[in-house]
Write a structure and sequence with these properties.
InterPro entries: HMA_dom, HMA_dom_sf. By secondary structure, this protein is α+β, with helices and mostly antiparallel strands. It is built from two helices and four strands. It has a four-stranded antiparallel beta sheet, covered by helices on one side. Strand 2 and strand 3 form a beta hairpin. Helix 1 crosses helix 2.
């Protein structure tokens, strides 16, 4: 499980955009988004953190691995 802090998540559309962006790279990835905290958790056997950050950034959100 990888966790990311993402800026700008505010609604269900944001959740869908992020989920679809990650699953475009790995259709089997499990994506959980917590809107209030801006936390995104990704469970993927194929994706590295840099790939997830890039996919989220391509949707217009600032993302970084959670500390």
């Amino acid at each position: 499980m990888q966790a990311f802090d993402v800026q700008g998540i505010s609604c269900g559309h944001c959740v869908r955009s992020i989920t679809q962006a990650v699953q475009a790279l790995d259709p089997q990835a499990q994506v959980r988004v917590d809107i209030p905290s801006g936390r995104v958790e990704v469970d993927s056997q194929r994706l590295e953190a840099t790939q997830v950050v890039a996919a989220i950034a391509a949707e217009g959100y600032e993302a970084r691995p959670a500390a």
